[in-house]
């Protein structure tokens, strides 16, 4: 994900957002008079104070209108069974609605609004959330702005670490560990099933996450692909080690030895994908690579690679379809 800071105008921040904040505060102040129950009190606590990557934060114990700052945050909320605000963010760059692999039943009646790469704090405020989950913690100013709208739990979901660690911490903060554990068990059961079938078929391919960036070919382990490959015990190309590899078009012969290539891009309106490697159509070395000649290039939705429960499970299914057709 490109680390893009908000370009919301100063006038909006100072005038429009401030005015909406006043309205929001007047709406919620009466409803949030209860706090953590005093010792011995029979009243149920309406808030809880938890630790986050950025210090303590006080959250509602039973949010009724949660919002995810990015689509991965929304997916975590859905998976944890947290009631959602009636409008939720999506990214630009070819998307006009929520990712198709999300729980569409949970999204029924919810309106999307574009919130990346430019952030729409006005739209967030208009959604009237009572909780915001913000995985864009790489920019602390984002969390600061969001906290003025509603209680906000922030973390850096794009620091290259395993997103599941952040997901587990979020589940604990929201008191939703049972839902977290249910997803984990479902995912692991699918992993075990695929691995057993690969063993039965005697399949042990070398795999790689490969893409084109301008006039270069990239090989990396960013996001969910290599997490899934590793969970399945697949042999990942050594080009992915460390920071990965960036190859010129003249160096694509180094990809020889990869049996199956996985790449990602935004889907067309009908759900289909273009040719992610169109720029290499006239490259003779590329055209002779075994995974090209044997049709072992598999394209999936770009949003799957940014760690979230549905994204990782959906990519796992993509690998299943590719290797066990």
TrEMBL record:
Residues 65-325 form the Fe/B12 periplasmic-binding domain. Transmembrane segments: none annotated. The keyword Signal applies. Residues 1-31 form the signal peptide. It holds the Pfam family Peripla_BP_2. SUPFAM superfamilies: Helical backbone' metal receptor. GO terms for cellular component: outer membrane-bounded periplasmic space. Keywords: Signal, Transport. GO terms for biological process: iron coordination entity transport. It is found in: Cell envelope. Residues 30-51 are annotated as: Disordered. Its main location: other. Belongs to the bacterial solute-binding protein 8 family. This is ABC transporter substrate-binding protein.
């Amino acid at each position: 994900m490109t680390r893009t800071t908000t370009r919301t105008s100063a006038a909006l921040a100072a005038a429009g957002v401030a005015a909406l904040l006043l309205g929001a505060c007047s709406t919620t102040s009466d409803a949030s008079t209860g706090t953590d129950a005093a010792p011995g009190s029979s009243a149920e606590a309406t808030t809880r104070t938890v630790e986050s990557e950025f210090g303590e934060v006080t959250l509602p114990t039973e949010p009724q209108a949660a919002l995810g700052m990015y689509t991965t945050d929304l997916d975590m909320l859905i998976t944890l069974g947290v009631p959602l605000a009636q409008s939720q963010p999506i990214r630009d760059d070819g998307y006009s609605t929520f990712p198709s692999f999300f729980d569409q039943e949970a999204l029924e009646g919810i309106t999307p609004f574009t919130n990346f790469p430019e952030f729409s704090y006005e739209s967030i405020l208009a959604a009237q959330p009572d909780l915001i989950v913000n995985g864009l913690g790489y920019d602390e100013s984002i969390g600061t702005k969001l906290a003025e709208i509603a209680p906000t739990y922030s973390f850096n979901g794009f620091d290259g670490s395993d997103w599941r660690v952040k997901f587990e911490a979020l589940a604990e903060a929201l008191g939703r560990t049972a839902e977290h554990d249910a997803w984990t068990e479902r995912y692991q059961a699918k992993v075990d099933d695929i691995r057993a079938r690969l063993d039965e078929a005697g399949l042990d391919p070398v795999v790689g996450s490969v893409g084109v960036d301008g006039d270069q070919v990239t090989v990396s382990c960013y996001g969910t692909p290599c997490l899934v490959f590793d969970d399945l015990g697949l042999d990942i190309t050594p080009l992915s080690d460390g920071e990965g590899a960036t190859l010129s078009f003249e160096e694509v012969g180094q990809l020889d030895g990869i049996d199956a290539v996985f790449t990602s891009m935004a889907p067309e309106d009908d759900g289909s994908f273009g040719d992610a490697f169109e720029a290499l159509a006239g490259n003779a070395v590329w055209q002779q690579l075994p995974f090209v000649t044997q049709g072992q290039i598999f394209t999936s939705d770009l949003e799957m690679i940014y760690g979230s429960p549905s994204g990782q499970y959906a990519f796992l299914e993509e690998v299943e379809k590719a290797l066990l057709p």
